[in-house]
Design brief:
By secondary structure, this protein is mostly helical. It is 78% helix and 0% strand. It has 15 helices and no strands. The protein has helices at residues 2-29, 33-55, 60-87, 91-102, 106-117, 132-150, 153-159, 165-172, 177-189, 199-208, 210-223, 232-256, 260-269, 276-285, 289-317. Helix 1 (2-29) packs antiparallel against helix 15 (289-317), helix 2 (33-55) crosses helix 6 (132-150) and helix 13 (260-269) runs antiparallel to helix 15.
Protein backbone atom coordinates (compact mmCIF):
# COMPACT_ATOMS: atom_id res chain seq x y z
CA UNK A 1 0.00 0.00 0.00
CA UNK A 2 2.88 2.38 0.75
CA UNK A 3 4.15 2.16 -2.87
CA UNK A 4 0.68 3.23 -4.06
CA UNK A 5 0.74 6.41 -1.96
CA UNK A 6 4.37 7.03 -2.90
CA UNK A 7 3.54 6.88 -6.61
CA UNK A 8 0.53 9.14 -6.12
CA UNK A 9 2.40 11.65 -3.98
CA UNK A 10 5.64 11.78 -5.96
CA UNK A 11 4.52 11.23 -9.56
CA UNK A 12 0.80 11.68 -10.16
CA UNK A 13 -0.15 14.58 -7.85
CA UNK A 14 2.81 16.83 -8.83
CA UNK A 15 1.88 16.40 -12.50
CA UNK A 16 -1.69 17.46 -11.85
CA UNK A 17 -0.54 20.38 -9.70
CA UNK A 18 1.37 21.87 -12.65
CA UNK A 19 -1.53 21.21 -15.04
CA UNK A 20 -3.95 22.96 -12.64
CA UNK A 21 -1.58 25.94 -12.37
CA UNK A 22 -1.53 26.26 -16.17
CA UNK A 23 -5.31 25.95 -16.24
CA UNK A 24 -5.77 28.65 -13.57
CA UNK A 25 -3.29 31.09 -15.15
CA UNK A 26 -4.95 30.73 -18.52
CA UNK A 27 -8.39 31.39 -17.05
CA UNK A 28 -7.12 34.55 -15.36
CA UNK A 29 -4.79 35.95 -18.05
CA UNK A 30 -6.01 34.20 -21.24
CA UNK A 31 -2.58 32.78 -22.14
CA UNK A 32 -1.94 32.13 -25.82
CA UNK A 33 -1.70 28.43 -26.64
CA UNK A 34 -0.08 29.20 -30.00
CA UNK A 35 2.92 30.90 -28.37
CA UNK A 36 3.44 28.17 -25.77
CA UNK A 37 3.22 25.51 -28.48
CA UNK A 38 5.94 27.21 -30.53
CA UNK A 39 8.26 27.48 -27.49
CA UNK A 40 7.81 23.76 -26.86
CA UNK A 41 8.37 22.56 -30.41
CA UNK A 42 11.06 24.98 -31.57
CA UNK A 43 13.22 25.27 -28.44
CA UNK A 44 12.52 22.86 -25.60
CA UNK A 45 11.83 19.56 -27.39
CA UNK A 46 14.80 19.81 -29.80
CA UNK A 47 17.10 20.52 -26.83
CA UNK A 48 15.66 17.56 -24.93
CA UNK A 49 16.11 15.18 -27.87
CA UNK A 50 19.67 16.39 -28.60
CA UNK A 51 20.98 16.16 -25.03
CA UNK A 52 19.47 12.74 -24.35
CA UNK A 53 20.54 11.25 -27.67
CA UNK A 54 24.06 12.70 -27.35
CA UNK A 55 24.55 11.37 -23.80
CA UNK A 56 22.87 7.94 -24.15
CA UNK A 57 25.17 4.93 -24.31
CA UNK A 58 24.06 3.09 -27.46
CA UNK A 59 25.54 -0.37 -26.79
CA UNK A 60 24.27 -3.76 -28.02
CA UNK A 61 21.84 -4.24 -25.12
CA UNK A 62 20.26 -0.88 -25.90
CA UNK A 63 19.82 -1.98 -29.52
CA UNK A 64 17.62 -4.81 -28.26
CA UNK A 65 15.54 -2.31 -26.29
CA UNK A 66 15.29 -0.14 -29.42
CA UNK A 67 14.06 -3.08 -31.52
CA UNK A 68 11.48 -3.88 -28.85
CA UNK A 69 10.23 -0.28 -28.88
CA UNK A 70 9.94 -0.30 -32.67
CA UNK A 71 7.91 -3.53 -32.67
CA UNK A 72 5.71 -2.26 -29.86
CA UNK A 73 5.08 1.01 -31.70
CA UNK A 74 4.17 -0.76 -34.94
CA UNK A 75 1.91 -3.24 -33.12
CA UNK A 76 0.05 -0.46 -31.32
CA UNK A 77 -0.28 1.46 -34.58
CA UNK A 78 -1.90 -1.52 -36.30
CA UNK A 79 -4.20 -2.08 -33.32
CA UNK A 80 -5.26 1.58 -33.34
CA UNK A 81 -5.87 1.42 -37.10
CA UNK A 82 -8.09 -1.65 -36.63
CA UNK A 83 -10.10 -0.03 -33.83
CA UNK A 84 -10.46 3.13 -35.92
CA UNK A 85 -11.85 1.15 -38.85
CA UNK A 86 -14.27 -0.74 -36.59
CA UNK A 87 -15.44 2.53 -35.02
CA UNK A 88 -15.66 4.14 -38.50
CA UNK A 89 -13.48 7.14 -37.67
CA UNK A 90 -12.56 9.64 -40.35
CA UNK A 91 -8.86 9.95 -41.24
CA UNK A 92 -8.29 12.79 -38.79
CA UNK A 93 -9.79 10.88 -35.88
CA UNK A 94 -7.98 7.65 -36.82
CA UNK A 95 -4.66 9.46 -36.69
CA UNK A 96 -5.51 11.28 -33.46
CA UNK A 97 -6.45 7.90 -32.00
CA UNK A 98 -3.18 6.40 -33.27
CA UNK A 99 -1.16 9.11 -31.56
CA UNK A 100 -2.99 8.52 -28.28
CA UNK A 101 -2.15 4.80 -28.37
CA UNK A 102 1.33 4.75 -29.91
CA UNK A 103 3.10 7.46 -27.90
CA UNK A 104 3.43 7.32 -24.13
CA UNK A 105 4.53 9.62 -21.36
CA UNK A 106 8.02 8.25 -20.71
CA UNK A 107 9.54 11.70 -20.23
CA UNK A 108 7.14 13.06 -17.62
CA UNK A 109 6.36 9.86 -15.69
CA UNK A 110 8.43 6.91 -16.93
CA UNK A 111 11.97 7.93 -15.96
CA UNK A 112 11.09 9.32 -12.54
CA UNK A 113 8.93 6.27 -11.79
CA UNK A 114 11.69 3.82 -12.73
CA UNK A 115 14.16 5.80 -10.59
CA UNK A 116 11.75 5.53 -7.66
CA UNK A 117 11.09 1.81 -8.13
CA UNK A 118 14.75 0.78 -8.34
CA UNK A 119 15.82 3.06 -5.50
CA UNK A 120 13.46 1.52 -2.95
CA UNK A 121 12.68 -1.88 -1.41
CA UNK A 122 13.32 -4.62 -2.52
CA UNK A 123 15.97 -3.16 -4.87
CA UNK A 124 17.66 -1.06 -2.17
CA UNK A 125 20.34 -3.34 -0.66
CA UNK A 126 22.43 -2.14 2.29
CA UNK A 127 21.82 1.42 1.26
CA UNK A 128 22.99 0.73 -2.30
CA UNK A 129 21.02 0.71 -5.57
CA UNK A 130 22.77 -1.98 -7.66
CA UNK A 131 20.00 -2.18 -10.28
CA UNK A 132 19.36 1.52 -10.79
CA UNK A 133 22.02 2.16 -13.46
CA UNK A 134 20.75 -0.62 -15.76
CA UNK A 135 17.14 0.43 -15.26
CA UNK A 136 17.91 4.11 -15.93
CA UNK A 137 19.90 3.37 -19.11
CA UNK A 138 17.08 1.15 -20.41
CA UNK A 139 14.46 3.78 -19.63
CA UNK A 140 16.43 6.59 -21.29
CA UNK A 141 16.65 4.53 -24.49
CA UNK A 142 12.86 4.04 -24.45
CA UNK A 143 12.35 7.73 -23.68
CA UNK A 144 14.61 8.97 -26.47
CA UNK A 145 12.97 6.68 -29.04
CA UNK A 146 9.48 7.68 -27.93
CA UNK A 147 10.29 11.39 -27.98
CA UNK A 148 11.81 11.20 -31.46
CA UNK A 149 8.90 9.24 -32.94
CA UNK A 150 6.29 11.41 -31.21
CA UNK A 151 7.76 14.55 -32.74
CA UNK A 152 8.14 13.07 -36.23
CA UNK A 153 5.60 10.32 -36.86
CA UNK A 154 3.15 11.98 -34.46
CA UNK A 155 3.29 15.16 -36.52
CA UNK A 156 2.82 13.16 -39.71
CA UNK A 157 -0.31 11.50 -38.31
CA UNK A 158 -1.82 14.77 -37.11
CA UNK A 159 -0.97 16.56 -40.34
CA UNK A 160 -2.71 13.90 -42.46
CA UNK A 161 -6.05 15.10 -41.06
CA UNK A 162 -5.96 18.27 -43.17
CA UNK A 163 -3.02 17.73 -45.56
CA UNK A 164 -2.02 15.38 -48.34
CA UNK A 165 1.04 13.10 -48.10
CA UNK A 166 3.48 15.71 -49.41
CA UNK A 167 2.21 18.43 -47.09
CA UNK A 168 2.32 16.07 -44.10
CA UNK A 169 5.95 15.20 -44.79
CA UNK A 170 6.74 18.89 -45.22
CA UNK A 171 5.14 19.51 -41.81
CA UNK A 172 7.61 17.10 -40.21
CA UNK A 173 10.59 18.85 -41.80
CA UNK A 174 9.53 22.22 -40.38
CA UNK A 175 10.16 20.82 -36.90
CA UNK A 176 13.72 21.36 -35.53
CA UNK A 177 13.64 18.01 -33.70
CA UNK A 178 14.07 16.18 -37.02
CA UNK A 179 17.41 17.91 -37.60
CA UNK A 180 18.92 17.55 -34.13
CA UNK A 181 18.71 13.74 -34.37
CA UNK A 182 21.36 13.31 -37.12
CA UNK A 183 23.35 16.22 -35.64
CA UNK A 184 23.57 14.54 -32.22
CA UNK A 185 24.53 11.18 -33.76
CA UNK A 186 27.11 12.82 -36.04
CA UNK A 187 28.80 14.68 -33.18
CA UNK A 188 28.67 11.56 -31.02
CA UNK A 189 30.25 9.43 -33.79
CA UNK A 190 33.08 11.93 -34.30
CA UNK A 191 33.53 12.15 -30.52
CA UNK A 192 33.25 15.93 -30.58
CA UNK A 193 32.85 17.12 -27.00
CA UNK A 194 29.92 19.53 -27.02
CA UNK A 195 29.75 19.56 -23.21
CA UNK A 196 32.71 21.97 -22.96
CA UNK A 197 31.07 24.62 -25.15
CA UNK A 198 28.84 27.49 -24.00
CA UNK A 199 25.93 25.90 -25.87
CA UNK A 200 25.74 22.87 -23.56
CA UNK A 201 24.47 24.64 -20.41
CA UNK A 202 21.84 26.43 -22.51
CA UNK A 203 20.67 23.12 -23.99
CA UNK A 204 20.46 21.59 -20.53
CA UNK A 205 18.43 24.54 -19.21
CA UNK A 206 15.97 24.12 -22.09
CA UNK A 207 15.91 20.32 -21.69
CA UNK A 208 15.02 20.72 -18.02
CA UNK A 209 12.04 22.87 -18.97
CA UNK A 210 10.34 20.08 -20.93
CA UNK A 211 8.19 18.61 -18.17
CA UNK A 212 6.91 21.84 -16.56
CA UNK A 213 6.38 23.63 -19.88
CA UNK A 214 4.57 20.66 -21.45
CA UNK A 215 2.30 20.30 -18.42
CA UNK A 216 1.63 24.05 -18.12
CA UNK A 217 0.78 24.12 -21.84
CA UNK A 218 -1.57 21.17 -21.35
CA UNK A 219 -3.27 23.09 -18.53
CA UNK A 220 -3.71 26.10 -20.83
CA UNK A 221 -5.11 23.83 -23.53
CA UNK A 222 -7.55 22.23 -21.08
CA UNK A 223 -8.78 25.68 -20.05
CA UNK A 224 -9.91 26.15 -23.66
CA UNK A 225 -11.25 22.59 -24.11
CA UNK A 226 -14.91 21.68 -24.27
CA UNK A 227 -15.14 18.54 -22.12
CA UNK A 228 -17.47 15.70 -23.01
CA UNK A 229 -17.38 13.04 -20.30
CA UNK A 230 -19.67 10.85 -22.39
CA UNK A 231 -17.14 10.57 -25.23
CA UNK A 232 -16.70 6.80 -25.64
CA UNK A 233 -13.69 7.24 -27.90
CA UNK A 234 -11.69 8.78 -25.04
CA UNK A 235 -12.35 5.77 -22.81
CA UNK A 236 -11.62 3.30 -25.62
CA UNK A 237 -8.26 5.01 -26.13
CA UNK A 238 -7.46 5.05 -22.40
CA UNK A 239 -8.41 1.38 -21.98
CA UNK A 240 -6.24 0.41 -24.96
CA UNK A 241 -3.28 2.51 -23.74
CA UNK A 242 -3.33 1.55 -20.04
CA UNK A 243 -4.72 -2.02 -20.09
CA UNK A 244 -4.15 -3.59 -23.51
CA UNK A 245 -0.76 -1.84 -23.90
CA UNK A 246 0.88 -3.54 -20.87
CA UNK A 247 -0.51 -6.93 -21.93
CA UNK A 248 1.06 -6.53 -25.37
CA UNK A 249 4.31 -5.43 -23.71
CA UNK A 250 4.42 -8.60 -21.59
CA UNK A 251 4.01 -10.78 -24.70
CA UNK A 252 6.84 -8.92 -26.46
CA UNK A 253 9.07 -9.19 -23.38
CA UNK A 254 8.80 -12.97 -23.53
CA UNK A 255 9.39 -12.86 -27.29
CA UNK A 256 12.59 -10.82 -26.82
CA UNK A 257 13.58 -12.91 -23.77
CA UNK A 258 14.13 -9.94 -21.48
CA UNK A 259 14.60 -10.89 -17.82
CA UNK A 260 15.03 -9.24 -14.43
CA UNK A 261 15.69 -5.50 -14.30
CA UNK A 262 15.51 -5.00 -18.08
CA UNK A 263 12.16 -6.82 -18.31
CA UNK A 264 10.63 -4.84 -15.45
CA UNK A 265 11.88 -1.53 -16.84
CA UNK A 266 10.65 -2.25 -20.37
CA UNK A 267 7.22 -3.19 -19.02
CA UNK A 268 6.93 -0.07 -16.86
CA UNK A 269 8.24 2.13 -19.68
CA UNK A 270 5.56 0.87 -22.08
CA UNK A 271 2.70 1.05 -19.56
CA UNK A 272 2.73 4.79 -18.80
CA UNK A 273 -0.19 6.97 -19.98
CA UNK A 274 -0.54 8.86 -23.26
CA UNK A 275 2.21 11.40 -24.01
CA UNK A 276 1.45 15.03 -23.17
CA UNK A 277 3.08 16.00 -26.48
CA UNK A 278 0.27 14.29 -28.43
CA UNK A 279 -2.07 16.98 -27.11
CA UNK A 280 0.40 19.71 -28.08
CA UNK A 281 0.78 18.21 -31.56
CA UNK A 282 -3.01 18.15 -31.94
CA UNK A 283 -3.02 21.88 -31.24
CA UNK A 284 -0.14 22.58 -33.64
CA UNK A 285 -1.88 20.66 -36.45
CA UNK A 286 -5.47 21.55 -35.45
CA UNK A 287 -6.53 17.91 -35.30
CA UNK A 288 -9.14 16.82 -32.71
CA UNK A 289 -7.62 18.97 -29.96
CA UNK A 290 -10.33 18.28 -27.39
CA UNK A 291 -10.09 14.51 -27.83
CA UNK A 292 -6.29 14.58 -27.50
CA UNK A 293 -6.34 16.72 -24.34
CA UNK A 294 -9.02 14.61 -22.67
CA UNK A 295 -7.17 11.36 -23.42
CA UNK A 296 -3.99 12.71 -21.80
CA UNK A 297 -5.91 13.75 -18.69
CA UNK A 298 -8.00 10.60 -18.28
CA UNK A 299 -5.13 8.19 -19.04
CA UNK A 300 -2.91 9.99 -16.51
CA UNK A 301 -5.62 9.69 -13.84
CA UNK A 302 -6.15 6.01 -14.69
CA UNK A 303 -2.42 5.33 -14.51
CA UNK A 304 -2.45 5.97 -10.76
CA UNK A 305 -4.11 2.55 -10.52
CA UNK A 306 -2.79 0.76 -13.61
CA UNK A 307 0.89 1.64 -13.07
CA UNK A 308 0.72 0.44 -9.47
CA UNK A 309 -0.61 -2.91 -10.71
CA UNK A 310 2.03 -3.08 -13.45
CA UNK A 311 4.86 -2.51 -10.95
CA UNK A 312 3.46 -5.22 -8.70
CA UNK A 313 3.03 -7.73 -11.55
CA UNK A 314 6.46 -6.91 -13.00
CA UNK A 315 8.11 -8.06 -9.78
CA UNK A 316 6.17 -11.33 -9.86
CA UNK A 317 6.62 -12.10 -13.57
CA UNK A 318 10.26 -10.99 -13.93
CA UNK A 319 12.02 -11.42 -10.56
CA UNK A 320 15.58 -10.18 -10.17
Amino acid sequence: MSIIFYILGNNIFPIFTIIVLGFALSKKFDLQLFTLSKINFYLIIPSFVFVNLYTTNLDSSMLKVLLFSILYLVGNGLLAQLIGKIRKYDIGMINAFKNSIMFNNTGNIGLSLVTLVFSSYPFLINGQTPYLEEATATMIMIMVFNNITTNTLGFYHAGRATMDLKQSLQQIFTMPAIYVIPLALFLKYLQIDVTTTFVWPALNYLKGALVPMALLTLGVQLSKTQFNFKNKEVYISVFTRTIIGPIIAVLYIYLFKFTGVAAQTVLIGHSVPTAVNTALIAVECNNHQDFAAQVVMVSTIASAVTLTLVIYLARILFPV
